[in-house]
Design brief:
With about 300 residues, the protein is an alpha/beta fold. The protein is built from 13 helices and twelve strands. Helix content is about 45%, strand content about 25%. The strands form three sheets. A five-stranded mixed beta sheet has the order 4-3-5-12-6. It has a five-stranded mixed beta sheet with strand order 9-8-10-7-11. Strands 1-2 form a two-stranded antiparallel sheet.
């Protein structure tokens, strides 16, 4: 085992995380035959199939599941040690960083992040991953993403966070279709509502409604917030969304209304997987995102 090529271990970890020979090859910047060759060597090394091809992709065996956590952590420590031993210069960085965001985050935060990111590291790459809140903690711990920006706290060992901004929920209605000056609780209950998928992480209002026993009629379910301006105009639909975005959407046709019941405000935070000795590139990335959003909020 002392002579084992670390690239084999990287292949095993990447196959586990992607479940795909094609995606593993893309992430490791090698050919698909190279991945297949490495997998054959791994199978000989561990005397196990490790991955079985199914309709859902490459499914790991029990042995692969046992190997993955230790190998992932070992590779992370090696990477951190190498990265920490040399001076990190953003202007020379050619790494790809992955940031998980909702569509609201893309609209409100991404422009400022991109401006700062490319100003400092013009050769680096940034991949925006659509946020799936139930997978966010796993993505951080497995290294699928460098960081997550969301409004739900991602508790758990090794997860750190930095609060970027505070916000609260409001309603958005068409000025003519809604035809109200103040949104009463009765109007809210009897109105027709737009519901946004819980995978966005914005489920606080639903929790409050359930606690208070308030039921609303959901007439339209959407995956994202960004289409709301087009959907609401000319309709009597009611949408609930963060104030910062609602204020962007509000215009001559759409009006912001306060919720007719109390919902606590919330924090939007940057989350990342902390290590005793984090890689310099990771520290730079998190600091860049934090500084860019903070500066944009102050502007």
């Amino acid at each position: 085992m002392a002579q084992v090529d670390l690239n084999l271990m990287r292949t095993l970890v990447m196959l586990y995380e992607t479940g795909s020979v094609t995606q593993a090859a893309e992430q490791l910047h090698v050919t698909q035959p190279s991945i297949s060759y490495a997998l054959n060597r791994l199978r000989e090394l561990f005397d196990d199939r490790l991955f079985v091809r199914t309709a859902r992709g490459m499914e790991p065996t029990t042995v692969a599941r046992q190997l993955y956590p230790s190998l992932k952590e070992a590779l992370r420590q090696i990477s951190d040690t190498i990265d920490g031993s040399r001076h990190f210069t953003p202007e020379r960085c050619k790494l790809r960083f992955r940031l998980a965001l909702t569509d609201l985050g893309e609209m409100s935060l991404l422009p400022a992040i991109l401006k700062s990111f490319y100003a400092q590291a013009p050769q680096a790459e940034l991949e925006v991953v659509p946020l799936e809140i139930d997978k966010a903690r796993e993505w951080l711990t497995t290294g699928k993403v460098n960081a997550v920006i969301c409004s739900r706290t991602l508790g758990g060992a090794g997860i750190d966070k930095h609060v970027l901004l505070e916000d609260r929920y409001v309603c958005l209605l068409d000025r003519q279709g809604g035809a109200v000056d103040d949104l009463s609780l009765e109007r809210f209950i009897h109105g027709r509502h737009v519901s946004i998928a819980s995978s966005s992480g914005h489920g606080l209002v639903e929790e409050v409604l359930t606690q208070r026993g308030i039921e609303r009629k959901v007439s339209l379910s959407l995956s994202h917030f960004s289409v709301l301006p087009q959907v609401l105009q000319g309709s009597d639909l009611i949408a609930i969304l963060p104030l910062q975005i609602a204020a962007r959407f509000a215009d001559a046709r759409l009006k912001v209304h306060e919720l007719p019941f109390t919902v606590p405000g919330f924090e939007v935070a940057l989350h990342w997987h902390a290590q005793p000795r984090s890689a310099a590139s990771q520290r730079w990335f998190c600091a860049t995102v934090t500084d860019a959003v903070t500066a944009a909020q102050r502007a």
